[in-house]
Design goal:
Layout (H helix, E strand, L loop, with lengths): L12 H24 L4 E7 L5 H9 L7 E5 L5 H4 L5 H4 L8 E5 L8 H4 L5 H20 L3 E8 L2 H12 L10 H8 L1 H15 L6 E5 L3 H24 L3 H5 L24 H25 L3 E7 L5 H9 L7 E5 L5 H4 L5 H4 L8 E5 L8 H4 L5 H21 L2 E8 L2 H13 L9 H8 L1 H15 L6 E5 L3 H22 L1
Parallel strand pairs: 1-3, 1-4, 2-3, 4-5, 6-8, 6-9, 7-8, 9-10
C-alpha cells in the first residue's frame, strides 16, 4: 500500500484557507447528526513519529462539540495493561452510541512497534492481526464506524522534523533516544507497516494513507476522509439500509444431536460423601488460588444454567475457602442503559480479571444467544453472528493464557418445578421466585434448543463446556470443584 503513495502532494495555502471554513462547518453538522442517529465513531491515527498526529488531531477536533468526543493517547502498555489481553485496554475505551473516540495510536502498536522491537514473535504477530480484524469486524457489525488513518512521511522528512524539535527549547523533550533508534530502523518499520496495512485493510475497516509531508494537504485529506465516511453512514440510515448493512443473513451448519439429552440426571451423591469431598476440594482450590497468583495465570469461571439449578450455591462452595482478595464474583443482570449504548461485550471486558486473579461470572455473554434470542431482544442475524464473536473473544483470552471454565447446570423440568414450588412456599426463599421465572419455564423447549445449539457451537478445545448434572446439588458442587481443580492444575503445570 505504501509503495503507491506519492509524498510530494501539496496544497496551496490560499486554496486551503478558502475551503476549510466550509469543511469545519460541515464536520460539526455531521457530528450532530451522528449523535442524533446514535452512531458510535472511532477514528484511529497511526503513522510515523513526527508525522503530525497531534497537530492533525487538534485541527480535526477544533469544530467539534467537546462534550461528544474523547481523545485517547496510546503509549506502551503499563503494568496493569500487561496483565490483561492486549485488546482489553481498547475494548474498555470504545465509545457509546452517538459519541466519538479518537485514538492517537492504537491497538496497531502490537503489530508494529512490538513486532519491530521483537517483543512478540511471528506467531503472535499473526494471531494479533487475526484478533484485530475480528475486533474491528465485531464493532462494524454492531454499527460502529471505524475510520483508520496512517500518516506517511519519508525518512528524510522525519529526520528534519526531529532536528527542528530538538533545536527548540520548548519542544526538545518530544524527541528521545528511542525516537532516533526507530528512525534508524525506518526500513524495518516501513516493511512492518506495509504488511500491517495490507493485512488489516478490510471491508469492515479500511485504511486511508494520508500524505503528511505538507500540513495543509494532510489536514484537508483527514477532513475529507472523516466527512466522507460520516456522510456515507448517515446516508445509509436515511435510505433505510442500516438493517441490511449491519445484519446480513447468516447460514449456520445444522446442529447434530442434543448434549442435554445425553446427560444422566439420576446421578446422586449422598450428604456424607459430599461433606468428605467438599472440604478436601476447597482446600485445594485455595492452594491453587495462590499458585495462579504466583504464576500470573488469569482464570475465568462462567456459570450458566436453568433457573433454580443452583448457580448461587455452587458459586458459594467454590469461593467458600478462597482468599477474597484474589477473586471477584460478577452477577450479570439485564444490561443498563449505559451498557446498551455500547457493544454487548463491552461490559464483560470491563470485568475481565488481570493475570493472577479469578473472575467468576453468574451468567455471562452467552445471554446474547440464550435469553436475548428467545425473548426477541436480538434479531436472528445478530444472535447467530454472536457465536463467532464469542468464540473469537474467548480465543483471544485463551491465547493470552486465561483459563476458561464454562459450566451449564442442568436439571429436569420436574426438578425445576419442585424447586419453584419450594421457593414459593418458603417465606425466606420467596424473593428467589418471580413471575419471569414462571414465564421462562413455559418456554423450556425453546430454551433447551438454544442451549443445545450454544454448547454445540461454542464448546471449543480452548474453552469447553462442562455440563453439571444438577438434580443432585451435592453432585453438581463436587463436579464443579473437581473440574476447576483439574483444569487449573493443568494450566499451572504448563507454566
Amino acid at each position: 500500500m505504501l509503495e503507491n503513495i506519492e509524498l510530494s502532494k501539496k496544497m496551496n495555502k490560499d486554496e486551503y484557507k478558502k475551503v476549510m471554513p466550509g469543511l469545519t462547518i460541515e464536520l460539526a453538522a455531521l457530528q450532530r447528526e451522528a449523535t442524533q442517529f446514535g452512531i458510535p465513531v472511532m477514528i484511529v491515527f497511526e503513522g510515523w513519529d513526527a508525522a503530525g498526529k497531534g497537530t492533525l488531531i487538534n485541527r480535526l477536533i477544533m469544530p467539534l462539540d467537546p462534550r461528544g468526543f474523547k481523545v485517547h493517547p496510546t503509549s506502551a502498555p503499563n503494568e496493569e495493561e500487561r496483565h490483561r489481553p492486549f485488546l482489553w485496554r481498547f475494548w474498555t475505551k470504545i465509545p457509546a452510541k452517538g459519541r466519538l473516540a479518537i485514538f492517537d495510536r492504537s491497538w496497531y502498536g502490537r503489530v508494529l512497534v512490538e513486532r519491530v522491537d521483537k517483543l512478540i514473535g511471528k506467531d503472535e504477530v499473526r494471531s494479533s492481526i487475526r484478533d484485530i480484524n475480528s475486533f474491528e469486524r465485531m464493532l462494524n457489525d454492531d454499527g460502529y464506524l471505524v475510520i483508520k488513518l496512517f500518516l506517511h512521511i519519508s525518512k528524510e522528512t522525519q529526520k528534519k522534523r526531529f532536528e527542528k524539535l530538538e533545536n527548540n527549547s520548548s519542544t526538545k523533550w518530544k524527541v528521545n533516544k528511542d525516537d532516533w533508534r526507530h528512525h534508524k530502523q525506518y526500513g524495518k518499520y516501513y516493511r512492518a507497516a506495509s504488511e500491517m496495512l495490507d493485512a488489516t485493510d478490510t471491508a469492515s475497516a479500511g485504511w486511508v494513507v494520508v500524505e503528511a509531508e505538507d500540513e495543509e494537504y494532510a489536514v484537508k485529506k483527514v477532513y475529507d476522509t472523516v466527512i466522507g465516511a460520516l456522510k456515507k453512514r448517515i446516508a445509509e440510515i436515511h435510505a433505510h439500509e442500516k438493517k441490511k448493512a449491519r445484519a446480513p443473513e447468516i447460514i449456520l451448519d445444522r446442529v447434530t444431536g442434543s448434549a442435554l439429552d445425553r446427560v444422566d440426571l439420576t446421578v446422586v451423591l449422598d450428604k456424607a460423601g459430599y461433606e468428605t469431598r467438599v472440604k478436601k476440594c476447597q482446600k485445594r482450590v485455595r492452594e491453587l488460588e495462590h499458585e495462579i497468583y504466583a504464576k500470573r495465570i488469569p482464570v475465568i469461571v462462567m456459570y450458566e444454567g436453568w433457573d433454580a439449578a443452583g448457580k448461587g450455591g455452587n458459586i458459594r462452595r467454590l469461593t467458600q475457602n478462597m482468599d477474597p482478595r484474589g477473586y471477584e464474583v460478577f452477577p450479570i443482570a439485564a444490561p443498563s442503559s449505559v451498557e446498551l449504548a455500547h457493544h454487548y461485550l463491552w461490559r464483560f471486558w470491563n470485568s475481565i480479571p488481570k493475570a493472577g486473579h479469578i473472575g467468576i461470572f453468574d451468567r455471562t455473554w452467552y445471554g446474547r444467544v440464550l435469553v436475548e434470542r428467545i425473548e426477541g431482544f436480538s434479531p436472528e442475524p445478530v444472535w447467530k453472528r454472536a457465536f463467532r464473536e464469542i468464540n473469537e473473544a474467548e480465543l483471544h483470552l485463551a491465547e493470552f493464557g486465561t483459563v476458561l471454565i464454562k459450566f451449564w447446570l442442568h436439571i429436569s423440568p420436574e426438578e425445576q418445578l419442585a424447586r419453584f414450588e419450594e421457593r414459593q412456599n418458603t417465606v425466606h426463599k420467596q424473593w428467589k421466585i418471580t413471575e419471569e421465572d414462571w414465564r421462562n419455564r413455559e418456554k423450556w423447549d425453546k430454551y433447551k434448543e438454544a442451549v443445545d445449539e450454544t454448547i454445540y457451537r461454542t464448546s471449543t478445545e480452548y474453552a469447553p463446556w462442562t455440563i453439571l448434572e444438577a438434580n443432585c446439588k451435592y453432585h453438581a458442587r463436587i463436579k464443579a470443584l473437581e473440574t476447576f481443580i483439574e483444569t487449573v492444575e493443568k494450566a499451572v503445570e504448563r507454566r
